[in-house]
Amino acid sequence: MKRFTLVILTLLSCTAFAVAQTKTINVERPGTLCDLLTEEELATVMELTVTGTVNYEDMPIIRAMCGYDGDNNTTGVCEKLDLSGATVITLDDYGSDLVNAIGINELANCATLKTLVLPDNLRYYQSRGLAYNSNLAEITISDDNQYFTAEGCALYNKDKSVLCVLSAAAEGTFVIPSNLTDAYPSAFLGCDKVTAYEVEEGNTVFSSADGALVKGDELYLLPGGVTGFLNIPEGVTSISANAFSGSQVEGVGIPSTLTEVGQSDFSGAENLVRFTVADANPHYLVVGESFLVNKDDPRILLLGAPGLSGEVTLPEGITGVNNYACSQCSKIERLIVPEGVTDIYDFAFGSCTGLTYLSLPSMLKTMTHQCFINCRNLLDVYIYATEVPQSNGSVSFYGGAKGCTLWVPEGTLEAYKADRGCGFMWFALQTGNSIKEMTSSGIGAVEAGRGSVEETERYTLDGRRIEKPVRGVNIVRFSDGSTRKEMVK
Questions:
Q1: Which residue, among 275, 264, 368, has the nearest Cα to 315 in the 3D structure?
Q2: Rounded distance, CA 156 to CA 183, Å?
Q3: Which pLDDT score is estimated for 340?
Q4: Which residue of 7, 32, 143, 394 lies most exposed, with the fewest beta carbons within 10 A?
Q5: How far apart are CA 25 and CA 399, in angstroms?
Q6: Are 66 and 116 in contact (CB under 8 A)?
Q7: Could you tell me if 386 and 364 are in contact, meaning their C-beta atoms sit under 8 angstroms apart?
Q8: Closest-CA residue to 374 (of 353, 356, 346)
């Protein structure tokens, strides 16, 4: 381990210029590769051929020579790696030796690797073994190998019915073979330069439409290199779990045939901010351009676009926020939940790690299971409910910030501090957190020092937006995000 640490430090810090080299090494005893290389060779070998037997202690050395050590890029410059004459031993899921295998992440993220010759005796390929290799343009393996075949920068099982990996160096249009029936879940990771998928004639499992890959009636994968707006093809009824992984699209059109939208279906689409829905779709509507609701109950927010950023106000007319609805929205910084919302459900805003400011309405009644879990950068939370919201017994802000202030209405401080349901008591006990009362104007002491505050919105008590004061109780929202009730006679 001490020797391995020295190897990595050498690759991270080496700045001296040296002549590029070609190196062939025979490893007779697994785990000794680092003893067969000089410090200069670690940073200068551009073509490396390894024979003999290497294991899980040697492979990190090879990976570091190809530009990555598992945590950081290195100064390794190896562009061609030939393992055709090597036996590679990795670890299986139970920690036992797995012979003739490329292990999980074993040659992933190799920034300089351009050509890879896999072992002639390769029998096992584990998930993400060659993922995110953005320059790996050529993968080859012996025609005599019984288990795998390679073509261009793709690795398949022997009969090309399963795609093991498509290198992240792939670009343009990628053609799916006629007999492909499946792919590893990690097969397309990092393929952000592919702009379209085509399917060879005769394939009975996959098809392509507008460049997207479709499996049966399921949207299987969007090309990662497509930006702007993309329509999901008509005929698609559901979306696979990885369809939007690494997608760069900014807008998505939902067809009339889509009948299932899961809470994580758009996971990975970090730029997605806009939805449209075909008028004939019987299930879904768009509100506020960036949010989906179900036609059967349009008052419940079903899903927020994962690319939402900056300050976000949830749309008017919403009364509840569904499970996981905005749990992918890690770029939201200021969130205003408007008057009219009474319920926030399980994990609704979980892992919104960019969130620093949160305003919750006076009508809020329930906050269920960890609805703000892992919102660890919160600084100020304003909650205007004079009665402490109810919960199902789970801490709403679990795993959250330390150093956050929860501002509550005047006269409610002790009730919030004593609360065990939503976990406000637990919140107050976390290092640096505090619960404080707002002033009678409804503006917290911290907010009061931020300059002039103006009215920006006005609502009736049932959450309907109004343009001017109306008789009865009005809910007034100010430019700092704060809210107060006002009686109009």
A1: 275
A2: 9
A3: 93
A4: 143
A5: 49
A6: no
A7: no
A8: 353
SS3 content of the chain, % helix, strand, coil (to 5): 10, 35, 60
At a CB cut-off of 8 Å and minimum separation 6, what does 159 contact? Answer: 179
Please name the amino acid found at residue 65.
M
CA distance 478 to 86: 69
DSSP 175-193: EEPTT--EE-TTTTTT-TT
Report how far residue 62's alpha carbon sits from residue 195's, in angstroms, rounded to the nearest whole number: 32
H helix or E strand, kind and range, residue 49: strand 45-54
Kindly report the pTM of this predicted structure: 0.79
Rounded CA-CA distance 254/176 in Å is: 25
Alpha carbon 69 to its chain's center = 23
276 Cβ contact list (under 8 Å, min separation 6):
251, 252, 253, 254, 286
Residue 463 gets which letter from DSSP?
S
pLDDT tens-digit profile of 140-193? 999 999 999 999 999 999 999 999 999 999 999 999 999 999 999 999 999 999
Instruction: Give dist(CA 407, CA 382) in Å, integer.
Output: 5
Give exposure, 72-109, as e/b (b: 16+ Cβ within 10 Å).
eebbbbbbbbbbbebbbbbbeeeeeebebbbbbbbbbb
DSSP character at residue 10: H
In angstroms, rounded to a whole number, what is the distance separating the alpha carbons of residues 223 and 192?
7
pLDDT tens readout for residues 291-308: 999 999 999 999 999 999
Least Cα distance to 131 among 94, 196, 205, 183 occurs for: 183
Which residues, at least 6 apart from 346, have a Cβ–Cβ distance to it below 8 Å?
323, 324, 368, 369, 370, 371
Amino acid found at 465? R
- Inter-residue contact 43 to 6 (CB < 8 Å): no
Chain-centre distance for alpha carbon 246 = 8
C-alpha to C-alpha distance for 154 and 137, rounded to whole angstroms? 9
Which residue intervals of 115-234 are DSSP H helices?
none
Return all residues near 340 (Cβ < 8 A) that are at least 6 apart: 316, 317, 318, 319, 361, 363, 459, 462, 463, 464
Q: Determine the Cα–Cα distance for residues 223 and 230; give it in Å rounded to an integer.
A: 10
pLDDT at 16: 40
